[in-house]
Write a structure and sequence with these properties.
There is one protein chain. By secondary structure, the protein is mostly helical. It has one domain. It contains six helices and no strands. α2 crosses α3 and α5 packs across α6. The chain is globular, with a radius of gyration of 17 Å.
Length: 145
């Protein structure tokens, strides 16, 4: 059975636009890169109370986003996770390792780093994309998942 991937061009465009606007606003207003894992890490161990406040506002926005979708559409966004808990835990640990060794996540490198033409972010993003493509190929075509 071939997995079905739902392509949602309008929702994807609007989501990308909002992420881009948020990244530009954070850089313009705070001089900071919109990297989700760095924002969360700084929320857990903030450098100052003002540093904590903007991080908390961004995380609150990420959490309240689906609620805003529900208010507008009348339904929560559907999230389908086609794997079990062990795979989710393993994936989370692997992402955590990647973020640690890659000095950032896809949002920090892929959105903000590429916009600044950072060589490190270009290499990191190419690595993310190649790893993703290889993982999908192995799971779908080698393992038959």
């Amino acid at each position: 059975m071939t997995p079905v991937t739902e392509f949602t061009p309008l929702a994807s465009f609007v989501g990308g636009l909002l992420i881009g606007l948020a990244a530009v606003a954070l850089m313009a207003l705070r001089g900071r890169v919109l990297g989700a894992t760095g924002i969360l890490a700084g929320l857990i161990a903030p450098a100052s109370s003002s540093d904590w406040a903007w991080r908390a506002a961004i995380v609150a926005g990420m959490i309240s986003g689906p609620i805003a979708v529900m208010i507008v559409t009348g339904a929560m966004p559907e999230i389908i996770v086609p794997v079990g808990l062990p795979a989710l835990v393993a994936g989370g640990l692997l992402v955590g390792l990647g973020v640690t060794f890659g000095s950032g996540c896809t949002s920090g490198h892929g959105v903000c780093g590429l916009a600044r033409l950072s060589p490190r972010s270009i290499v990191a993003t190419l690595t993310f994309m190649a790893s993703t493509g290889l993982t999908v190929y192995v799971i779908r075509h080698v393992l038959g998942g």
